[in-house]
Design brief:
The complex is a heterodimer. By secondary structure, chain A is of the alpha+beta class. Chain A is about 60% helix and about 10% strand. Chain A has 2 domains: about 325 residues, no CATH class; about 35 residues, no CATH class. In chain A, α1 runs antiparallel to α6 and α5 packs antiparallel against α7. The longest helix of chain A has about 70 residues. By secondary structure, chain B is mainly α. Chain B has a single domain, classed as de novo design (two linked rop proteins) (Up-down Bundle), CATH 1.20.1440. Chain B is built from 6 helices and no strands. Chain B is rod-shaped, with a radius of gyration of 24 Å. In chain B, about 25% of the residues are buried. Classes of the chains: A alpha+beta, B mainly alpha.
């Protein structure tokens, strides 16, 4: 396990240096195009400043920004005891130093993500749609997947790589816009400078244009291919933690039946979710953040002997074929982790409607609704912006007093 | 003459340093085992505390299941009095078995299953059982590591002279307990 984390760290460093190099080169070429040698220096400086600012922001409060932008609400044990318990179970299995914070997102699309730069300050967020659909074992599978993202330090990697990608995209956009306006003639200064330098200026300009268009594409492809690999690893880790692949399988099946996109996600944060929040196109392409869900299900289904990384890797080569998707370091430690049986509790069919109503109530509770039981047995939900202190029961007509606070 | 003294002195010094470092690592490992055990112990205690509540809630609905309640109560008091991992794992295994039988019988009482209080107790119990299972894995890993260390040379010499003894695994007695037993009514 520790070996795995070490290799992950090394890979992250390699990827990040590549991206940093791309960013600096981009800055240099753009600077050259505008103002020769001094310009190149200036370009690198601008690239560094953009990167540093984004980095500081994302490092200090990246998780808070992500959670706030997905409108995630922090919940306590009382709000959803089962979710809380499942997270605690996986925390014990993963041997995390601290209990992650738990958030619920009010969105009908089933999905989940983990965030926070280290296991000490990790957060797990799930959507209301996920809670409404999954049973206990399935929820455990999803949480185990998120937990292994935390253990593998994937969140740190995705945050850092995402920032780098963001900087490169930003630089290119600024440059291309700048080019567009200066060619319109609104800024004469640059064009006169480059004409002074003659042919060399035009060559740099062309190189910079090509770089500005290609660099974001190249970096994105790199980013998404690594993100796909880490999904496989997180699936394998989830099975190892929960020792029950069937839970994750049926959770993924239920998630894949849904085709509503998640509103709170964007292209850079997409790798953090358990399944691609955009859906849409079937199959995998260079821009996919996640492996196709059918393939993930097939691999997990095929695991019948054990729950170790080795078993996942074997299953991968048997179902998908080709070289192992798991890094060699994960397979080095030989261990046997036995699979467990489905819990009796999960086998019971809970009525879907009831579960959805419960989640609805949870979301209202989180959003500050007040609950009031009438004498006739009807439970009334009072929105936080309700004026007045008396409410009439719609069923029996009895007037009740709302107690504040 | 002086050289041979220096060499012997050096060797003795080296041995002393090695003994100290092995001793320290043994102490660290033993503490890790104790820590892992306390993780399980917390959950076992929580399960013991849950049972009176559970029985009290269910009793009102399940009037014809005296035997089931008795076997749970008996298994609980045995598990609470157990000393050490080996004895505890046996007693706790019996308690788990009694509880899983109880959960099966519960299926016949729809009114009980609709009780909010019982449902929340059931969720806590399920979660506690899971936590025991996951903590057990961690504990057994630590025990294996510790036992290997005190049996292997050269650390076994130090372990023997300072009274480090082998620890017991926390095993679930019969693996069948994890499966749902087939009961025909």
């Amino acid at each position: 396990m520790w070996e795995q984390i070490r290799v992950n760290k090394r890979n992250s460093v390699i990827l990040l240096s590549t991206m940093a190099f791309c960013l600096m080169a981009l800055g240099a070429v753009m600077g050259l195009a505008f103002g020769g040698g001094e310009g190149a220096f200036f370009g690198v400086m601008i690239a560094t400043v953009i990167w540093l600012v984004l980095m500081v922001v994302s490092f200090s409060s990246g998780d808070q920004i992500l959670l706030a932008s997905s409108k995630a609400k922090l919940v306590t044990h009382e709000v959803h005891p089962q979710l809380f318990n499942v997270v605690e179970e996986m925390k014990i299995a993963a041997n995390l130093p601290k209990m992650p914070k738990i958030y619920i997102i009010n969105d009908p699309s089933p999905n989940a993500f983990a965030t926070g730069r280290s296991p000490e300050r990790a957060s797990v967020a799930v959507t209301a749609g996920l809670l409404a659909r999954l049973n206990r074992d399935e929820l455990q599978g999803v949480i185990a997947h998120e937990m292994s993202h935390i253990v593998n330090r994937d969140i740190l990697f995705i945050t850092l790589a995402g920032v780098m990608l963001g900087s490169i995209v930003l630089m290119s956009q600024v440059f291309l816009r700048g080019m567009f306006y200066s060619s319109m003639g609104s800024t004469r200064r640059y064009s006169s400078r480059s004409s002074n330098q003659g042919g060399a200026g035009i060559v740099f300009l062309v190189i910079a244009l090509v770089a500005a268009i290609l660099a974001p594409i190249f970096v994105q492809i790199l980013y998404f291919s690594l993100s796909r690999r880490r999904e496989y690893l997180a699936d394998a880790g989830a099975v190892r933690l929960s020792r029950y692949p069937e839970g994750l399988v049926s959770a993924l099946e239920k998630i894949s039946q849904n085709n509503k996109p998640l509103e709170a996600a964007n292209k850079v944060t997409a790798p953090m979710y358990i399944s691609n929040p955009f859906r849409g196109k079937k199959g995998v392409n260079l821009y996919s953040t996640h492996p196709p869900i059918e393939e993930r299900i097939k691999i997990l289904r095929h695991m019948s002997r054990g729950a170790s990384f080795k078993d996942y890797s074997d299953s991968y080569s048997q179902t998908v074929g080709g070289a192992s998707v798991m890094p060699a370091s994960a397979l080095k430690t030989v261990e046997s982790v036995e699979l467990r049986k489905a819990s009796a509790h999960a086998k019971r069919k809970e009525s879907r409607k009831k579960q959805q109503r419960q989640v609805g109530d949870i979301m209202r509770m989180v959003n500050g609704f007040a609950f009031l039981s009438c004498a006739c047995g009807l439970k009334m939900k009072i929105p936080p912006n309700f004026k007045g202190d008396k409410v009439k029961c719609p069923r029996c007509g009895k007037v009740s007093v709302i107690s504040k606070g | 003459m002086w050289i041979s003294f220096a060499v012997i002195g050096g060797i003795i010094l080296l041995i002393i340093v090695a003994v100290i470092s092995i001793y320290n690592s043994l102490v660290r490992l033993r503490n890790q085992v104790d820590n892992a055990w306390s993780q399980i112990d917390v959950q076992l205690k929580r399960r013991h505390d849950l049972i009176p509540n559970l029985v009290e809630t269910a009793k009102g609905y399940m009037t014809h299941e005296r035997e089931t309640f008795e076997s749970i109560t008996k298994a609980r008091s045995q598990a609470m009095g157990a000393q050490g991992a080996a004895e505890a794992s046996k007693a706790e295994g019996m308690l788990s078995e009694a509880l899983s039988k109880f959960m099966l019988v519960v299926e016949n009482y729809p009114e009980l299953k609709a009780n909010e209080n019982f449902l929340s107790l059931q969720e806590t119990l399920t979660s506690t059982e899971n936590k025991i299972a996951f903590a057990r894995q961690g504990y057994n890993d630590q025990v294996l590591f510790f036992n290997n260390k005190i049996q292997m040379f050269p650390s076994n010499v130090i372990a023997n002279s300072f009274n480090f003894t082998k620890r017991d695994f926390f095993e679930i007695e019969n693996e069948a307990e994890r499966e749902v037993p087939k009961v025909s009514f």
